[in-house]
Amino acid sequence: MTILPPDWHDTFSSYNAALTRRQFFRRSGTGLGVAALASLLGPRALGADEVPAALAEPWRIAPKAKRAIYISLIGAPSQLELFDYKPHLETRFKEDLKDWLKDQGERLTGMTARQTSFPLAPSRFKFAQHGKSGMWISELLPNIARMADDICVIKSMQTDAINHEPANQLVYTGSMQNGKASLGSWLAYGLGSMNRDLPAFVVLHAKHSSPFSNVQAISARLWGSGFLPGKHAGVSFRPSGDPVLYLNDTPGIPRELRREMLDGLEQLNRRSYESLGDPDIQTRTQQYEMAFRMQASIPELADLSKEPDSIYALYGEEARVRGTFASSALMARRLVERGVRFVQIFHRGWDQHGSLPRDISAQCKDVDLACYALVQDLKQRGMLDDTLIIWGGEFGRTVYCQGALTETNYGRDHHPRCFSIWMAGGGIKGGTVHGETDEMSYNVVRDPVHIRDLHATILQLMGLHHEKLAFKFQGLDQRLTGVLPAKVVQGILA
After folding, report:
1. Which DSSP string do the residues of 401-422 spell out, in sequence order?
2. What is the mean pLDDT of residues 383-412?
3. Engineering a disulfide at 318: which of 112, 307, 326, 353 sits with its beta carbon 3.0 to 4.6 angstroms away?
């Protein structure tokens, strides 16, 4: 069978007649002038879409973790209800903070800007000390409290954004602007894959069980590759049905024939690449091959039925139901166990402007046991020491109430100046609390940690130097941490 007609190449003649900038560099990179041109223009003079491994060494450092799981709580959980204990606020219930906020230079969202008063709303939940460090943790997280000695709580997180979309983009891509590469894509680009049959970066979308929650919308930009080659984008697994669409072969087309079809397509793409020099052609070829291999690897991965009863006793019976947070946490363990570099679990519904006590209780019930189980599961498999876990949202919540305040019900608005997250595993000093906020959980008073600092720390723990991990795009060396100062948070490292 003839795969290509004899005159196939002529179909590109008109396109090739118009010499593009990329083609100029590619064609100039052959012949006697190649050495001089390469010395002038660097490793991408030949149109390469990635730096060769030998030249990538400057961004590699000794890693503490081989893989990471990021539990992303979309909507921003309130630090006042979870980790930032402020017991003295109980005596100031309904105190109007209007004048005090003016002195602070408060940025108000459109949701509270027209309020005539800003009544102080103490948390109605009890706190207790846990672990050797005496870490204060809310009654809403009884299982996470059981592993206080395994986690490090950062109470002094800061961000620049006050609304969800830019805040999420900053947390997960390092910038509030569109078009940037996500954290997971940077890790895939800088470290590569540990399993050729699975993506380096997988995204899981966990359903929330609460019917009351305000479900914040998110976009694929949060796990996209931006200017990096498309193969580094996160592969999103569906919470129901087949994890990946078109996983099964079309009826009547055996796998052997599909292999022949892909081989023929690879020949077409190779000739196109030789003619046009477009790296996206190579990306498509690589993605076709990955999809073919995933058809064999994903069914076994997604089959949770072979997990022993002891695992379901650990994660809870909800882990048997596809799409729940417990099931997603178990799937995350299976993914990293099989060599996936970065897994991100998105759990929405944490945007509690009203009915906060009711809704945050349901949300915490969703994630508390499974988070504990994930850490213990990794520990018992000897994987926790080289698996980094990050847990948190995009900003914090205000100490004052949004809307009506009663003794049993209140809401909180967005607050970028301080919020809490926790980390565990690879290279993290368990049983520690980093940073402190003022008496109102309003400003950071000790050891501030900006989003850029968090990114620098994650990269270092994974074996990447945040100032040297870069990708040339639009004439600039793009970095996850950008151009503003960023520092590794030494106080949380083991």
Report:
1. ESS---SS---EEEE-S-EEEE
2. 97
3. 326
